[in-house]
Amino acid sequence: MKIGLVGGSFDPIHRGHILLGEYALKQFDLDEIWFLPAGQPYMKAGRDVSASEERKAMTKRAIYGLPWARLCTLELERPGNSYTYETLEQLCKEQPGHEFYFILGGDQLDQLEHWRYPERILAVARIIAAGRGSGADYKAMEEKAAALTDRFGGRIHLMNFPALDISSTEIRQRAAARDSLEGLVPPAVEAYINRQGLYRVTPLPQVAIFDMDGTLLDTENLCIREWATIDGSGDPALPDLIAQVCGFTRADTKKFFLAHYGPDYPFEDIQEKLEKRFEELRLSGEFPVKPGAAQVLEKLFLQGFLLGLASSTHRRLVLPELASVGLLDYFDVIVCGDDVKQGKPDPEIFQKAAALLGREPGHCFGIEDAYHGVRALKAAGLRPIMIPDVKAPDEEMKSLAEIILPDLRSACEYMLQGIKHESL
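Request: output the structure for the sequence above.
Response:
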């Protein structure tokens, strides 16, 4: 595949960055454009750059719905300064089947020889340099490109690109003054900047951290039904026992059942068969989803919420299950049962999700169906929203939850309405 790369601090990403990728895609018949938010751009030393999670979240929202665009977080995940030659060499090593085109503005072409190891950049990727509109001095660009290739080797292509008077500095200034950003950034990015209070002195960040099983996926009832079938004992107490461990880690669930039925209970055999059944449903496209799950996540995502997932289930199951029902890409952070030492009702999993999102727990809504999940939310200091599933709320749940609601859609409206009230 021919991959175009658009990099930058993206603080914030704006319409010019998106158009740069789109024009290169069409003019050079590329297959995809990958957007690479920089970790710590060494050329911006001395200026505070927004946290990596903020820039990652804005980039995700900027390219949402563009089938040719992908987010590449390689530089965000690498510590220290971001150097283009390191990024390109790592991409070529990890993706040997791709041909990479590094896309930059014509003004950056003048600076390329001063970058760290330009010869290594040109050795592993082609350069696409975009002139700015009909006023661009393409003859001077051609001469510069020729001089660079004579000195360092490689190939440099020129691209005609419309003149756009957009700068991230101006956008930050306008955001700080609460001015409209219409036409400067994609609507979802403007919503995110406004919702999270970026570039303002006193931000009001907003986050929703979801449980998965029983909250987004209708797997609790499925688990009860299939487990009872596999168990085959006909014990009338079994469905209630399974309901009691909703939200438990696998290890805690095993302890619970061995304590109840004795050490000979075939827990691991049942779990293995249960996982196979879940996999069959996932691969067949029949995995059960709660009504409105995709619509709610999309609405919150596009209206500027940071989204996290905190599931007691192991990552090897969480990621494919979410992907199979089209929910995976909405999440900015995912924390699973094997990422923490203590399972729910311990608050660790929700505390970790909030910390990874760079938010104080009190700025985060938590959406749960299970008793242990609500207990964990309350202990972590989040704002618990309970959507009951297999167990109706008791007096304890009513006292711990901020509100108990019947479904995801009503929870979504509550969170959005709550934001309006807080901003008055």
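The radius of gyration is 25 Å.
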